[in-house]
Specification:
137 residues, alpha+beta, Double Stranded RNA Binding Domain, three-stranded antiparallel beta sheet, 4 helices
C-alpha cells in the first residue's frame, strides 16, 4: 500500500470537551468526557485536490462551511474519546484520498439475452393457457 500523500497537523484540530449523553450515573452527570472534534477543511494544510474531494463526499458530518464535526462519546475517558475522534477523521480523509476505480462499461453476453427471451416466451405461453376458451359458433 502507498504511504499517504498528506499529513494531519494536530494544531488544525479543535477539540472541545462536552458532556456525554445516555445512562452512566454520576460519571455522566459530573464529568465532560465526550469530545467534539472540529476540523476546517478550507483552512487546513491538506493538498487542494484532496480538499475538493473531501468536501464533495456525501457525509452529514461535513457542514456547508467546510468544517468537519465529529462527536465521540463511546469511552469513559476523554483521552480515549479524543483518539477515537481523530481516528474517525483520518478514516474520512483516507476515504476521500483513495481514487475511485473507473467504471469499465460491459455488455451482457448473447446467451443471457437468449435465456431472457426464452423465459419471456415460456411465461407468455403459460398466460395464454389461462384465457377462457373461445366460443366457436
Amino acid at each position: 500500500m502507498r504511504p499517504p500523500c498528506w499529513t494531519l497537523d494536530d494544531t488544525e484540530l479543535e477539540f472541545t470537551a462536552i458532556r456525554a449523553r445516555g445512562p452512566g450515573g454520576q460519571n455522566v452527570n459530573k464529568v465532560s468526557s465526550a469530545v467534539r472534534l472540529r476540523f476546517s477543511v478550507p483552512d487546513s494544510s491538506l493538498p487542494e485536490e484532496l480538499k475538493t474531494r473531501l468536501l464533495a463526499l456525501p457525509d452529514r458530518r461535513i457542514g456547508a462551511d467546510g468544517v468537519i464535526s465529529i462527536r465521540a462519546d463511546a469511552a469513559r475517558s476523554q483521552a480515549a474519546n479524543r483518539a477515537e475522534a481523530r481516528a474517525r477523521l483520518v478514516a474520512l480523509i483516507e476515504r476521500a484520498a483513495r481514487p475511485r476505480t473507473p467504471r469499465r462499461p460491459t455488455r451482457p453476453p448473447r446467451s443471457a439475452d437468449r435465456r431472457r427471451l426464452e423465459r419471456k416466451t415460456a411465461r407468455g405461453a403459460v398466460k395464454r393457457l389461462r384465457t377462457p376458451p373461445r366460443n366457436s359458433d
